[in-house]
Design a protein that fits this description.
The chain is an alpha+beta fold and 133 residues long. The chain is built from four helices and six strands, in the order αββαβββααβ.
Length: 133
């Protein structure tokens, strides 16, 4: 008997790896907009989680990416690949087990990763990880 979950069911935040929690906090601390974590484990083999957020302009996109990368680097976690930093429309930080996507608003709407990966579960962020109001 198989158990299936709908994309509306949320994965528990307690199961998030510490590195993903650090990335979420760093993005939140730079006032990232529409912060979402998708659990890809049941549907993808290349990464376990997507952390997706937006900045209001190129400077904020770069600041969010810098904060995530710097905070994780302080914890001795370095990205395998960084892409898009110079243009700051969509910065991708690939940490193998999770990928951080920092978008400008227009690019986020255009690529719509949440819709593209619609079968992935959204992770309910614990209060200390949830975006600030």
């Amino acid at each position: 008997m198989s158990t299936s979950t709908s994309r509306h069911d949320a994965a528990p935040p307690g199961g998030l790896p510490e590195e993903v929690q650090v990335a979420v906090r760093a993005a939140r601390d730079k006032k990232a907009i529409d912060l979402v974590v998708l659990d890809l484990r049941p549907i993808a083999g290349f990464a376990d989680y997507f952390v997706i957020c937006s900045g209001q302009n190129a400077r904020q996109v770069q600041a969010i990416a810098d904060a995530v990368e710097g905070t994780l680097k302080a914890a001795h976690v370095r990205p395998a690949h960084v892409e898009g930093y110079g243009r700051a429309e969509w910065v991708l930080l690939d940490y193998f087990d999770f990928i951080v996507h920092v978008f400008g608003r227009e690019r986020r709407e255009f690529y719509a990763l949440e819709r593209l990966w619609g079968s992935a579960q959204r992770v309910d962020l614990a209060p200390d990880l949830a975006p600030r109001a």
